[in-house]
Amino acid sequence: MPKAVTAETLLNEYVSRSDCILLVNPPVEETRYAWLRWNQPLDLLKIGTYLQRHVGCNVELLDFMKADARGKVMQQRLPGARQYRIIGDERYPMRRYGLPYSELTKWVVKQRAAGTELPTQVWITSLCSYWFQSVAQVCREVRQALPDAQIVLIGSYARLMPGHAANTCPADLIATEAFDVADIPAALDLYQNGLPPFAALRLNPKTAITEIKVAIEKEIHDFAFFEEDICIDDGEPLIEIVRKTEHLHLHMRFHVICGLDPWKVTPKLATILAKRCFANLHFEEASDGEQLATEAYRRAVAYLREAGAKIPAKLVSGFVWIGRPEENLDAIIARSFKVLELLGSFIFKPFSPTPGSAEHRRYADYLGAIPHQDWSPHVFPFSELNEIPRAEYNDLYRMAAFLNDRVRGEAFDFLEGTMGLKFLKESLRREVWKLEPSSLSVVD
Amino acid sequence: MADVQLGGIDPSILRELSGVYKPFVKALKELVSNAFDADADHVHVAVADDFSSMTVTDDGEGMTPFEFRNDFTRIGGGSRRWLGEKTQKGRLRIGNKGIGFLALARYCSRLEVESAGSRTFQYVFEIGETPATVELDAVFGFAIPESLLRRRLRCKIAQLHGRIGDLTLGKHFKFDTARGLLKVTHRVGAVRPQLSFDCKDLAFRATLDFERLLELADKADLDKLAEFASIEIWQHRKTDSFQGTRITAHNLKSFVRRELRAERRKGYVRNIASRDGLERLTWHLSRCTPVCYMSTNRSDAQRLQKPLTIPNNSVLQKLRVSHGGTSTVIERPIYPFEPEALPLHDDMLIGIKISEGDLIADGFIAGYENVIFPAEYRGITIRVCGVAIGDPHFFGAEYLLTGASKAALSQITGEINVLKGLDAVDALNPGRESFYEESEQYKILRHHLIGEGEHVTGYLGQAIAAVLRRSQVRSALKDVLGHAVLRRRALDDISAAVADIIASGERIGVAIRELLKSTNSRTNGLAHCSDIPLSAPPRVGGLKVVPTAHLSEPIEIDYHKGEIFLDMARPEWDWTLVLFDRRVQVVNKRGGVNRPLGELDLRDGRLLINWEHPIRTQMDERGFLRMALSWVLAKEAASGDADQMMDLALRLLSFRTDTVDA
Question: B658, A139: Cβ pair inside 8 Å?
Fold first, then answer.
């Protein structure tokens, strides 16, 4: 059985200068992964720096999820019986996002042929606990290719579900805590065969500024913030980072892909977010009790417009939660239209409880009967609880695609200059799918 | 302008002869060959922007008007006739048939020749009876202006039978330069006049009207044959910088222009024939003219530089082709020197040295592991005097061979320089596009290259054998490695399936975990059977297999030593099966028909497979391995629960790690 250890114990007692540590960001087996291009193992990159600087050991990285120069991440349909995941009446096509598992063996063969030192430990991270199956498969590959190496599980899965991990993965150690490495810069130089197209950042100004400077020297111009709350401390860390780096390169772009709370947008922060160096802004859903906090959105939009931002704009949108335990379709649709009206575009954000969180504890009995891989928000684990069939969720996605500003703006461009386009746009504006009571009756 | 009379040919065969040179580049090559024979060092081919004309300029010794008339336009003449085997610079002459001027007849409507040669023309003839009057136009073949005749023509006349000896100008004979006549005024019997014309600083411009010539030839209008050519002669100033010869082909035919103007074929292009028209022209010109070999930086091909070194006086210093403001200096390409050429291996390179009878030849034949592109390089090029004779070919071996041997020809290239022999008139066809196969020297060359009879032997036979040997070894190795990879994939699939089932937390997953915790040996007889080692074979394709480890490639082959180094440390040769946290060794046993399919020995960490089980004949190795491993594990994990066993076996059998070849 693998041994559970704290991050501190792991670093102090299990790693030495003579070790060679391979850090692995495993592939993901999922039915849908819209934010694929933003997968970067920031924790591994920061841990890598720590191990190099403070332990002095040799560190290598194998990032299965690295995008190529065009920003594309490899994906393949799963073969054989795993082609579909069947839940209830729904059949979800499954894909493996990232490089094939055999890439690890190929890497080892290459290292051996080059006479390079082989890893004594392999640390495998995970972004979400419900993606544990690929972690288990990577463990197996490591056991096969590097029989003498110790396997260490880190990341969300190991931290949130150490017991589950011990039963499902043939690992040696499981790190049950997060590493305190927020103020350590990411080791981008661990990417030996081509750099990733963007660099992920945390909101530690000193570290982030250093990381941005290094990345720009390496001709990386896109930066994404990996934070749950990007407006923390009235947005001061974000403001400092942007002000101290925006002049570094003309093509530098920040991507706010999460953590932007409409409530927390201040006039000062809005002047920063309205800058040209912000490529996209995705607002988290802001609620006021049961209702959508429209006031928060209106105020954030007003501040941004005042600061010179154009809203609606192609790259501004708001998330709308779906798949939550106690929701109904009407409320989802109402919130979607409100966000659409306020921001011009909305994106559904499917919900999954974090293991150990309040939601998990509240619905522990219900969730306990669901295999952990089916906690994936993309297969709607609360569907049976809230009685919204999965087919309805699929319809919601179709509706979102149809209603989104991007669709309204561009999908019918091929009809440009025709009456058809005029009618379609008018129909969309009038939301003709909402049927009014008809004065006609059906005659049998 | 005076008309020039064409001599020495029946016009009815003009059309036939003009068709000897095809395609256009072969005709153009004749002009370059003429420049070479004229001891030129630099030749410039200028193509008009609109491809309507082409001018070949050289810095050679040029021509006198008389040489132009008597040699350039004389069919069946040839420079060798009047100047010997070698040029003044010691070059072996290329031209010998004397039909060169007709080369371009099919491709342009008019040929303009400008040249100057500072030599003295001499002509001796006999007059049977005197007094007599001789028309000089008829003797020279064209009219010469009176002023030139007066200043440059000298004549010595000897009496053939009598006591006078040499006749005296003014007394026995005189010139009427105004009418172009030589008059022997006395009765002195038979005489032998010796005319000499000093051509110093004399230039001429002649025009050959090919349209007219071919029209006349069609009508066999002998009387009018002089009308197709005209000449203009003048004394050029000493300040004129022009020396040598300039030949312009005017009004190139539309099909020639179309070819030259052709664009590069769209998409991925590998062959010369798919390149644009001008590229094709320069490439072919570079192959069939006497120019230096291109240089190479390729280490594998540098050893060829020595055998291909040719004396400086055997090649032009520079052959340049220009069009539309760009200029290309042409060098002779050979496939091994091309930057994109496949690697050249020692055992596939066959040096050629032939010295038999009057024939001396040097060169090489090279075989390659893959098909040669551009396709135009396939075959053996024979060069005589540095000029390729026809296109590369295989001396008829292509008609003798079949199957793999014939296919191997597409992987062979070669270059042979004939240093002596085969340059005789009776060895080469007109146009120097092929050999007379009856030539003794050709027979010797052919014998050395492909042997005799219906089997291809000789140097080419060696090359084919080397290509086939490699192909067979590669194919056999691919087979061996392919089987190993498939067996490994079967093990990986089972291993991944076990990991997946355990991770799913299902009941059968728990059953497998429980099984793997045990250390029981559940063998029953198969353990005592002998092993079948499915490792590397001792020999592959006749080469010895040397197991080794940690190579950069799965295999390395040393054809010289006859050894194959196989990297046995690679995963495909590993028979370990990872079952969650246990590693077991899969051992293949010679169990025969009465033994079970497989047995699990967790005490010693082994999984035994009966490789001689009857069901093995029903499926391939990968399928059998998957099936055997699945059933053994399912049986052991299910502990007598048939449903669970079936469920688990099917799960294991249907699992694939990745999509094919991932």
Answer: no
